[in-house]
Amino acid sequence: MEETAPPASPGAPEDVTQHVGYLLKRAQAALRGAMDKVLREHGLTVPQYATLELLALHPGMSNADLARATFVTRQSGNVVLRGLQEAGLITRPATADHGRARPAHLTGEGRARLAAVQSAVYAVEELMVEAVPPQRMAALLTDLDRIAAALEE
Questions:
Q1: Which candidate, 34, 24, 53, places its Cα nearest to that of 116?
Q2: Closest Cα partner for 81 from 106, 56, 100?
Q3: What number of other Cβ atoms are within 10 A of residue 146's Cβ?
Q4: What is the SS3 assignment for 56?
Q5: What is the mean pLDDT of each run of 10 residues along the chain (153 residues)?
Q6: Cα gap 84→68, rounded to integer Å
Q7: Which residues pair with 90 in a beta bridge?
Q8: d(CA 33, CA 24)
Q9: Which residues contact 25 (CB under 8 A, 6 or more apart)?
Q10: What radius of gyration, in Å, describes the C-alpha atoms of the chain?
């Protein structure tokens, strides 16, 4: 008996490589690979870089807040913070003033490392953005936000 492929979702192409989810994952993987490459030259990982960027914008964020914002688990976020602290890029108090949150802050070295790598990371994003016609960029950003919101509900 010949096997048949399961029906694609309504309106979706039968070729899985043309599904929205597949194409989003392909784009995400390409972005991650390009960022890994430029960050490796500066001794950083993507989660470490994202953490430095967020702490530059919002000093004092907790591990839980940083983990959520960088799309990692709390455990992974704590590993990232410990690595950044051991490298002298952030500071955190040894104990929490209240609860369990220990606010993190960039050190001078952390600000310098972030500044040194930002142009390389921004160049990766620019390559990505240049692939989209300017008149379609606003719609793409809106659509990506809508996709995320639909799945977060």
A1: 53
A2: 106
A3: 10
A4: helix
A5: 53 80 95 96 95 97 93 94 96 75 92 96 96 96 95 86
A6: 17
A7: 106
A8: 14
A9: none
A10: 20
